[in-house]
Amino acid sequence: MAKKDYYEVLGVSRNSTVGEIKQSYRKLALKYHPDRNQGNPEAEEKFKEASEAYSVLGNDEKRNIYDNYGFDGLNMGGRGFSTSSFFSDSIFSDFGDILGDLFGFGNFSSTRKNERYRTRKGSDIGIEVDLTLEEAYKGIEKTVTAHREKNCDVCNGTGAEPGTSPDVCMQCGGTGNIRRSQGFFSISTTCSMCNGSGKIISHPCKKCKGNGRMEDIKDIKVIFPPGVDNGNRLRITGEGEEGFDGGRPGDLYIIINVKEDDKFKREGNNLIYELNINFSQAALGDEVKIKTFYGTEKIKVPSETQNEKIVKIKGKGFKNINSWGKGDLLVIIKVVTPTNISRREKEIYKELREIENKKSKNFSTESKNIFN
Fold first, then answer.
1. H or E, element range at 261
2. Which residues pair with 125 in a beta bridge?
3. Is residue 298 within 8 Å of 170, Cβ to Cβ?
4. pLDDT by residue (tens digit) across 57-70?
5. Are 14 and 63 in a shared domain?
6. 244: number of CA atoms within 13 Å, CB side?
7. Helix axis angle, 41-57 relative to 60-74, nearest 10°?
8. Tens of pLDDT, residues 308-359
9. How far is CA 290 from the centre of its chain?
10. CB-facing half-sphere around the CA of 116: CA atoms within 13 A
11. Most buried among 121, 152, 268, 312, by the most CB within 10 A?
């Protein structure tokens, strides 16, 4: 019998996110789990079918192969799996986190997996760094301080006093897991005696008190490239916490907070500046100098400029951090009404008003003649 399309099995579209796929599988697993449908081979088959589909669609690499090559692609080059080995530990680990949520077992990784993969990658850490808008525009090198964990330099992370070794946990036999049976599954849970380490430390290291870990503080120079924006993350590979039992270290993530500037704003890659001018500058035109992040820029105000007019200075905005090119400097002109005007200014404005009133009357008369 031909296999059903995995997307059809889970009832999701080909554009579904991983979260949507996981949610759909949860519902099907709860509905068709054999423990809830004892003596119902059809439900058991549907559960196997849904689990098989999730093991592929819930894994980015397998999903990509399936989308491009179908079922044949999954069985090529040793990348695929067969239904006979579907419930092996390697496949079981793909969806173990979901089953753990459903049936209340904290750790669904198999005993075999724990025996083969003792090393563990160190945790990633994150640091928030504040930049000014000018620093984000130009780019800058800063030193950040990372607080992280590393293996104890006395016991090399074993937790045991030098000259001694950890003992094998008698409860789990050194596997770190206790095997249980749940329906037709064989499920492993974390050993409560050794907390999953498989080891018992009889003579703890005096420096780290048996933890095998200690705090490490390191100053790291970080280059923030021109054009970084608020919320951007920079990854510094290998500068996270040290790995366990020879595992590789985690990474350091720098989360950028760009502070507001008094004069400039950012919209996308454009640099925004508001230029206040008076009536005479707007009417007659002018040339105004402004101080920018890159130096002094001359802004030409055309005659008869209206309020909110935008003057664009091309290529003077933020660098596009993901590709070539830059944004623009956009100068928004604001025509400001004067305050605290002098007697002479009042006289000039009265004369101006009379002239404008005459223009307005002439315009009204001409308009009437046109309509007549």
1. none
2. 252
3. no
4. 988 888 888 888 88
5. yes
6. 13
7. 120
8. 999 999 999 999 988 889 999 999 999 998 888 899 988 888 888 888 788 7
9. 37
10. 7
11. 152
Phi, psi torsion values for 144, nearest 5 degrees: -115, 150
Number of domains in the chain: 3
Q: In this predicted model, which residue has the larger pLDDT, 226 or 110? A: 226
Same-domain pairing of 151 and 250: yes
* Residue written as token pair 């420096």: 207
Which one, of 299, 300, 283, lies nearest residue 348 by Cα? 283
Quote the CA–CA distance of 344 and 341 in Å, as a whole number: 8
Whether residues 151 and 252 fall in one domain: yes
Helix axes 41-57, 18-32, angle to 10 degrees: 160
Q: Alpha-carbon distance 203 to 153, whole Å?
A: 16
- Go through 176-204 and write b for each residue having 16 or more CB atoms within 10 A of its CB, e for each that does not: bbbeeebeebebbbbbeebebbbbebeeb
d(CA 190, CA 182) in angstroms, rounded, equals: 15
Amino acid at 227: G
Q: Hey, is 93 helix, strand or coil?
A: coil
**What's the token pair of residue 347?**
């006289």
Q: Identify whether residues 240 and 272 lie together within a single domain.
A: no
The tokens for 133 are 């808008």
Q: Look at residue 353 and tell me if it is in a domain.
A: no
Quickly list H helices, the chain. Answer: 6-10, 18-32, 41-57, 60-74, 89-92, 96-103, 111-116, 133-138, 279-284, 343-371
Of 124, 88, 70, 76, nearest to 250 by C-alpha is: 124
Distance, CA of 269 to CA of 223 (rounded, Å): 20
Look up the CATH number of the domain holding residue 23. 1.10.287.110
User: Residues 221, 95: contact at Cβ < 8 Å?
Assistant: no
Residue-level length of the chain:
372
pLDDT value at residue 339: 85
Q: What is the pLDDT of residue 97?
A: 47
112 falls within a domain: no
Domain that holds residue 92: 6-104
Pairing status of strand 233-236 against strand 213-224: unpaired
